[in-house]
């Protein structure tokens, strides 16, 4: 519930100012529920408005913005959110803790000392925490971990690997699952830890923001095309989720770059890290990697992510 009742005219807060070192923060409005304050703070963040949630008094949570130029816009949106939190423009924020806002990178530490009553929305976004329903991602991770444990410590005759790997002859005989199943096999601990971490990070983000149907379609497309490309150009003896991971990364990269208000965000440092790893593997600095799976997976993600933008530009 919001402090300012809907039958009252919009309230102005010109004198509600608090200094933060060399900046001045201005209050946008207050909520009785912390949850709603976080949702609205997330929405402001997706619009590029740096903000902070602070406990104002015993039972109220205030939304504060950092820059004077954003105050009027933020207050207008606050009044609209107060009257109609289900308005379509707030749909990203109403996903709750899915992705807690898209905040510009923090250039310097200008926030007050951390405590339970102050929530810097920039840091919540930067942490990459994802809430909401991500059980599809979790089920895939469980399947990969179970497969790894069985093939690494129990299966002494590579029976499971031979069941999962690509094979033109076996696919021609009707075993079409082999277009996908190499993604579940991993060769060592580092391999599976690396892939599962990024699957959770990227996959959970897409599952929450785009839904399970789209997420499954993207994941299967990246798996099939990356596996086929690696098999066709190199051969059948490979495995891992890396092609899918690069597909998910490519999708989020394009959305963050060309649709900044879509709710997707990826830090430039992470882009450099992922592409640096890609190049290091491709040129042989890191050996024994299914590089063509990485490349085809990345291509699938880039196409899925950029295609809507390209289509709009044609119109």
Percentage of residues in strands: 5-15%
Order of helices and strands: EEHEEHEHHHHHHHHH
The termini sit apart by: 43 Å
Output the radius of gyration.
Answer: 23 Å
Q: What is the makeup of the main sheet?
A: 5 strands, antiparallel
How are the strands ordered across the major sheet? 1-2-4-3-5
The total of helices stands at 11
Give the strand tally.
5
CATH architecture of the largest domain, by name, is Up-down Bundle
As for the CATH topology of the largest domain, it is Rhomboid-like fold
The shape is: elongated
Name of the CATH homologous superfamily of the largest domain: Rhomboid-like
- Determine the fraction of residues in helical runs and give it as a percent range: 40-55%
Walkthrough of the structure:
The chain is of the alpha+beta class. The protein folds into 2 domains: 17-126, no CATH class; 135-314, Rhomboid-like fold. 51% of the residues lie in helices and 9% in strands. The protein is built from 11 helices and 5 strands, in the order E-E-H-E-E-H-E-H-H-H-H-H-H-H-H-H. It has a 5-stranded antiparallel sheet. A hairpin with a 3-residue loop joins strand 3 and strand 4 (60-65). Helix 4 packs antiparallel against helix 7 (189-210), helix 7 (189-210) packs antiparallel against helix 8 and helix 8 (212-233) packs across helix 11. The protein is elongated. The two termini are 43 Å apart.
